[in-house]
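Consortium newsletter contribution from the modelling node. Members have asked for a concrete example of what our holo predictions look like. Here is one, prepared for the iron/sulfur cluster complex that several groups have been discussing at recent meetings.
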Amino acid sequence: MMSRRTSIPLRIGKVTVGGGAPIAVQSMTKTDTRNTKTTINQIKELEECGCEIVRMAVPDKEAAEAIPTIKRQISLPLIADIHFDYRLALAALQAGIDGLRLNPGNMGDRKQIAQVVKAAKEREAPIRIGMNAGSLPATFKPQFPMAERMVDMAMEQVKFMESLDFNLIKVSVKAFDVLTTVQAYKMIADKTPYPLHLGITEAGLPRAGAIRSAIGIGILLYQGIGDTIRVSLSAHPCEEVFAAYEILKTLGLRQRGATLVSCPSCGRAEIDVVRLAQEVDKYLEKVAKPIKVAVMGCVVNGPGEAKDADVGIACGKGKGAIFKKGKVIGTVTEEKLLETLITEINSL
Ligand code: SF4
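And here is the predicted structure:
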């Protein structure tokens, strides 16, 4: 069991982040916030796929004005993502937002930040100091490495907020470069007790982006660092939530949804294992129970893995043995494998 860095717990709506609470999974809407109907629909989809905190861009006054309508129809804690204009942060707070993300790289005016902090304090709304390598001003300590620059800028903002007697703080120091991100989080984890929001920013399409995110976020979580995670992918936000839970499940930190064990197939396979695994995977998207399902191509590792799963198939020529909780419960023909497996999954 890995030990976790101790952080100050923070309430974001109904969710606790940090202080030993389960690592919360976040995502962000990809709709035009001003279009409340599509934004609400996407937030509902996110809730269904397991997202626990949702953030949305608030790029203008109209988007801030959409907050009360959106809030009324959702139950996830809602965070406003604010860049450049502190007045949008004030408007979002006024509109009842549960938390803010401010980027110190593009919002550094102390008088303005002080106004936002005052309003956030009155409403007990937390603020994430969300540093991104891409928006770090080129003039800020250019002689230092990127990780150090991000940490220094984020820490300046932390100290300033603390000087205003505000401690509802969460911090992130994200970069696209995984090693820079890991280095930055390791540094800031030692400098501040606030919860850390982890992510690899602009990670790309799911195929490579999920791997980059898993490596970066995984290294940090394994070292006990991180209280909430967001996987940033150029895809539907539920893909981000799926990847986030896979990371947490792999490290034994959370349990949610089914886990598919499937063999890669090889010259010994006697049915189309890859296609069958894809079909099972598609079905498992709808399963929220934390179960393990195995799809194995032959008798080499098949029975062993299938036995170990809650439900499994070990295939033979044109047929497959169905396993449930370690025991063979029958043999069915290739055409009936998917259907039988689904029936057994549903009966668990
Ligand atoms: Fe090949 Fe059988 Fe192993 Fe699948 S379980 S990879 S078919 S040897």
